[in-house]
Design goal:
Blueprint (H helix, E strand, L loop, with lengths): L1 H34 L2 E4 L6 H12 L4 E4 L3 H13 L6 E5 L3 H4 L2 E3 L11 E8 L2 H4 L1 H9 L4 H12 L4 H11 L1 H7 L9 E6 L3 H16 L3 E6 L2 H9 L5 E7 L4 H7 L3 E18 L19
Parallel strand pairs: 1-2, 6-7
Antiparallel strand pairs: 3-9, 4-9, 5-8, 5-9
The structure holds 1,1-dimethyl-prolinium.
The site of 1,1-dimethyl-prolinium (PBE) has 12 residues, from helix 2 and helix 10.
């Protein structure tokens, strides 16, 4: 009898210890999961979409961190994840060649942090109209569709240089382009365009650059950071930019220079920014991200 009691006691103690140990394991496992944040793959720090994503992390209370990178590195991370069939979330925008390359979707944004439909505007420095009326008129007339921009981006992604892709688009859309060129020729000279090396802006800026070159101008397309592009146009260091994402994405930048530039209005309508995931990712909204954050590490 005594032996049985001892054995039973031992069993209970062993069972208790086992439960405690496995309980500890679970707990520390959970703690590790709690500690590790999910990650969102970002682009260049100055981009409006980066600021919007920092705000999304706060407003949706996301247990995620945003990683700075570059537009090409973002696309490479997306490709790598898709090749492995893994979940990934990137700061994404339309128009962009990635939507032609893969099946992707925007996560719903019920709080509207990323804004609604955006347009891309052309902004010129003060005095351009008087000093280079022909350049001003061409910039004012430049207006194309998301599918046009995407075609140029797809060619660049396929290996063409930005100038080659722009030339191809200009040749294929000669009638449209001729309609943008002012009838009255001006005195030729130099002109400068500022832009950021986002895929969309590489495409638009090189199209405009090549048209101006065909018109007889020497064009310098100067790649800079977003902040420098905006202060540059505000201070008249560039003649124009075709890369202003409004009303939301570049609202802060625009507000600072609004009074010292001329806004020539949209050159493209139907743009959008947000968090983009492969279509196979099994959530649809930013609000669901925390529930599946371990899939985004
Ligand atoms: N983008 C592309 C830019 C504007 C053009 C969406 C990455 C941005 O977020 O500022």
């Amino acid at each position: 009898m005594k032996k049985l009691v001892t054995t039973l006691t031992l069993l209970v103690v062993v069972a208790f210890l086992a439960a405690t140990v496995s309980g500890c394991n679970n707990e520390s496992g959970e703690q590790a999961a709690k500690g590790a944040k999910g990650k969102l793959i970002g682009i260049e720090p100055g981009a409006g979409i980066m600021k919007a994503t920092e705000k999304a992390i706060v407003d949706y209370n996301l247990d995620f961190e945003l990683q700075d990178s570059s537009s090409p590195a973002m696309a490479a991370a997306l490709k790598e994840a898709i090749d492995k069939n893994e979940w990934v979330a990137v700061t994404g925008w339309t128009p962009h060649w990635k939507f032609a390359a893969w099946e992707l979707k925007y996560l719903d944004d019920p709080k509207g942090i990323y804004g609604g439909e955006e347009h891309i505007a052309t902004i010129v420095r003060q005095g351009l109209k008087e000093e280079k009326p022909e350049v001003y008129a061409l910039l004012d007339n430049f207006y194309w569709k998301p599918a046009d921009m995407e075609a140029v981006m797809v060619d660049i992604e396929g290996g063409m240089s930005p100038d080659e892709a722009a030339r191809k688009w200009i040749e294929e859309n000669n009638d449209t382009v001729s309609g943008w060129i002012p009838a009255e020729a001006g005195e030729k000279g130099e002109t400068t365009l500022g832009y950021v090396e986002w895929d969309s802006e590489i495409a638009s800026t090189h199209v405009v650059k090549n048209i101006l070159e065909d018109m007889g101008y020497q064009v310098e397309a100067i790649a800079v950071d977003a902040g420098i592009m905006w202060t540059g146009i505000g201070q008249g260091e560039f003649d124009g930019i075709v890369s202003a994402w409004l009303p939301g994405t570049h609202a802060d930048y625009y507000a600072k220079v609004e009074d010292s530039v001329e806004n020539l209005g949209p050159n493209l309508e139907g743009a959008k920014i947000g968090l983009v995931v492969p279509a196979y990712v099994e959530i649809d909204s930013i609000e669901e991200l925390n529930d599946v954050k371990d899939k985004f590490q």
